[in-house]
Amino acid sequence: MPSQNVDPRPYVGADHVRILEERVLAHDWYLLRKTTFEHRRRDGRLQVVSRETYDRGNGVALLLFNAARATVILTRQFRFPAFVNGCADGLLIETCAGLLDGDDALAAMQREAIEETGYAVTSPRKVFEAYMSPGSVTEKLHFFVAAYEDADRRGAGGGEAHEGEDIEVLEMPLAQALAMIASGAIQDGKTIMLLQHAALAGLANL
Questions:
Q1: Helices 174-183 and 189-201, interaxial angle, to 10°?
Q2: Structure pTM?
Q3: Quick check: 132 and 56 in contact, CB under 8 A?
Q4: pLDDT of residue 3
Q5: Other beta carbons less than 10 A from residue 27's beta carbon
Q6: Phi-psi region of 57 (alpha: psi -120 to 50; beta: other; left: phi over 0)
Q7: What is the 3-state secondary structure (H, E, C) of the chain?
Q8: How far apart are CA 156 and CA 55, in angstroms?
Q9: Tens digits of residue pLDDT in 53-80
């Protein structure tokens, strides 16, 4: 049986990681680097490793919910990487999300909510942060939930056409969204995380 008192970060410190070489492989839309570094293993040995990291900045994700109606607001849009990796039509159902783009997390979330869904967020609550693909992508997401009412809708949403966005806004019962996870109709990681959080906490407690 594993020890219950293991230090999860036993070699953090000045000598934990030492950068040996760093090269920029691409810097078009975002930044792709190849870094060779030395790090200390758990047994104390030093090991040289090379890794590529993709830096697109940090982001936000938001689940809009209406507790009285037991509904949530989601979006549907074309995702080319999903399309080339087995998603037949490339259309993913997701929570509202976007990059910080120089804003703090709260301001970025409110901006993305208006742009993508048309809803003005008035009662947001940050619930957690997570690295989404830490083996290769530096991005950390800030996750929010917020109640919505019909009166909060200020526009149609749909995203920014000049950025190539064409976003459909969906309203559905939370129970339906959870069933869509089970059926494979919802496969986006951030969306599954927020929907499962809502299911565990209960919409009335978000």
A1: 130
A2: 0.91
A3: no
A4: 42
A5: 10
A6: left
A7: CCCCCCCCCCCCCCCCEEEEEEEEEEECCCEEEEEEEEEECCCCCEEEEEEEEEECCCEEEEEEEECCCCEEEEEEEECHHHHCCCCCCCEEEECEEEECCCCCHHHHHHHHHHHHHCECCCCEEEEEEEECCCCCECCEEEEEEEECCHHHECCCCCCCHHHCCCCEEEEEEHHHHHHHHHHCCCCCHHHHHHHHHHHHHCHHHC
A8: 31
A9: 999 999 999 999 999 999 999 999 999 9
Query: What is the sign of the dihedral through the CA atoms of 136, 142, 200 and 71?
Result: negative
Q: How far is CA 94 from the centre of its chain?
A: 10
What is the β-pairing status of strands 71-78 and 59-66? antiparallel
For 160-178, write each residue's pLDDT tens digit.
Answer: 888 878 999 999 999 999 9
Distances from the Cα of 124 to the Cα of 36, 38, 165, 191, angstroms: 41, 42, 24, 17
Query: Which pair of tokens denotes residue 68?
Result: 């009285």
Residue with tokens 């992508």: 137
CA neighbor of 146 nearest in space, from 128, 169, 121: 121
